[in-house]
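Task card 7
Instruction: Convert sequence to structure tokens.
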Amino acid sequence: MEIFNDETLEDLQTGGLYLIQKKAGFRFGADAVLLADFAKDIVSNKTLDLCTGSAVIPILLSAKTKTEQFFGLEIQKSVFDTAMRSVRLNSLENRIFLTCEDLKNAVSIYGKRQFDLITCNPPYIEKNSGLQNPSDEKVIARHEVLCTLEDVINVSSLMLKQKGHLALVHKPSRLIDIICYMRSADLEPKRIRFIHKTVDSEPSLVLVDATFKGGKELRIMPPLYIYNKDGSETNQIREVYGR
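Output:
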């Protein structure tokens, strides 16, 4: 498959998989890789990735799990087109099925109670917080321009099967919002893991796993540190990346 001059081909370091990305577009980061690792042990026959972007999460999970079918929703057409090329590049057309659509229309596309697992790496920055260009691809990926955290959680509560899981990654500053929105949507947080850049730093990310109509029992997992004090990668993050 041809890789254009404005693109790069990223080695995902898992299962011989690669990802096409635009040089100037929004590019996946450690948060997506961490979410895929966090979700890999959740048993699922049918998984939906909201705000799928480059489809990096379903592509990674295709190598890390035995899930039969992955679905992804991406609202930006240019991002969707590139993601489709990555799916074809990895010969995953029979396992990963992407749709270019607003996630708020997910129920009309798939129907209710269809998924064992929903993953999401949503925009982190709240609406009207330093927004510059609402049509810019990077801004849409980072700011709540076209969907909000509450949209993601409410849609997930309609799409999940009984005891199905929602796994997402976000900023720790939004954790109270996440828990409040989840509980109001019958999603009960089950696992929380904080991600720190170093052992001395405050967490920069939080991973949350909730179940639809699950019992009230929350586990705070050991924190994950990305860098040692000397700047080298920790064994924890090297294991996540398979290095």
